[in-house]
Amino acid sequence: MQLTYRCSGNRSGAPVIFLHGFMGCGEEWNEIVEQLTGYFCVMPDLPGHGGSMGDLITADDYSFESVARLLIELMDDLGLKTACLVGYSMGGRIALYTAIEHQHRFSGLIVESANAGLESGAARRDRRAQDEKTITQMQTEGIDKFVDTWLSNPMFAPMRNRRGAFERLKKLRQSNSIDGLAMSLRNAGAGAQPPLWNRLHSLKLPTLIICGEEDSKYVSIAEIMSRGIDDCSVVCIPESGHNTHFEKPNQFRETILQFMNKIVSEKETSMEIQNNVKH
Predict the structure, then answer these.
(1) Residue 88: beta bridge partners?
(2) Of 75, 151, 157, 243, most Cβ neighbours within 10 A?
């Protein structure tokens, strides 16, 4: 199975891969990437979302290990030796796992509103039980009503401030299939995520964690995660909640651009030093 994806920007520019959240799709990053013209941006639809349904049949097809492998295969197909990896919420959890497992393939990591996992087995079991109730609700209500219910969560309230854009976002989410979302939630949800807290110290990539100032839960998580990663900074975007890249796209874009420009600059400096040594 291959992931459906979209590309934007300069094909010769530094590559960046953007991973969306639950019920999202690659298209949701358009507002961010359309002005990153100096970069080569790749926006896949994660398994069970958008166009990435294909021939996925078993639970293993949706696992963190499988999704990480699909992302590496996508990079190989595009001829990308390395890339900066950006992930939001569910996509942030997948990005963190993928970066730890395949560290040599990435130049940097940006995690937006995501967790390193539930630490106890009991907490993961409780979350899986909660997710099963969510799946039943989804199947009972149908996709249109369920999306309305999901987005009524107070965590997403700030998103409604961009009324026209919010309606377009809602329609994109309603275009997903219930079966695909159910499989994704069961196998790539927080209850299925391998806890990564004790592996954060192994992450040697430049890392940026972004959260919304009004999303107090993830502000706290971001601070705790950052303590476990050697080269890590945290940015809290003012007047925003869980989905900062949608609520405050300009601030989000400038934040990641500053981080990515620094990575590119340091890489170029390193290459210059190596060339001078050779000569």
Answers:
(1) 112
(2) 243
